[in-house]
Amino acid sequence: MDLLRSEPMQLVQLIIPVESAHCSISYLGDLGLFQFKDLNSEKSPFQRTYATQIKRCGEMARKLRFFKEQMTKAGLSPYARSAMSDDVYLDNLEVKLGELEAELIEMNANNEKLQHSYNELIEYKLVVQKASEFFHSAQNHAAVKQREVEAHQSGEGSIDSPLLLEQEMVTDPSKQVKLGFVSGIIQREKSLAFERILFRATRGNVFLKQSAVEGPVTDPASGEKAEKNVFVVFYSGERVRNKIVKICEAFGANRYSFTEDLGKQFQIIAEVSRRIEELKTTIDFGLVHQINLLQTIACHFEQWSHLVKKEKSIYHTLNMLSIDVTRKCLVAEVTKLKNESSSLILQIQNVLQQATVDSNAQIGTVFHVLQTKESPPTYFHTNKFTSAFQEIVDAYGISKYQEANPGVFTIITFPFLFAVMFGDWGHGLLYNEFFSVPFELFAPSAYGCRDPSCRDATTAGLVKVRATYPFGVDPKWHGTRSELPFLNSMKMKMSILLGVAQMNLGIILSYFNAKFYGNELNIRLFGYLSLLIVVKWCTGSQADLYHVMIYMFLSPTDDLGENQLFFGQKFLQILLLLAALVSVPWMLFPKPFLLKKQHDERHRGQSYALLETNLDDSDGTELHHGSSSHEEFQFSEIFVHQLIHTIEFVLGAVSNTASYLRLWALSLAHSELSSVFYDKVLLLAWGFNNITILIIGLIVFICATVGVLLVMETLSAFLHALRLHWVEFQGKFYEGEGYKFQPFSFASLGKEDE
Amino acid sequence: MYGFEAMTFNIHGGYLEAIVRGHRAGLLTPADYNNLCQCETLDDIKMHLSATEYGPYLQNEPSPLHTTTIVEKCTLKLVDEYKHMLCQATEPLSTFLEYITYGHMIDNVVLIVTGTLHERDVQELLEKCHPLGMFDSIATLAVAQNMRELYRLVLVDTPLAPYFSECITSEDLDDMNIEIMRNTLYKAYLEDFYKFCQKLGGATAEIMSDLLAFEADRRAVNITINSIGTELTRDDRRKLYSNFGLLYPYGHEELAVCEDIDQVRGTMEKYPPYQSIFSKLSYGESQMLDKAFYEEEVKRLCLAFEQQFHYGVFFAYMRLREQEIRNLMWISECVAQNQKSRVHDSVVFIF
Question: Where does the record place a coiled coil (chain A) (predicted)?
Answer without folding.
Answer: 90-117
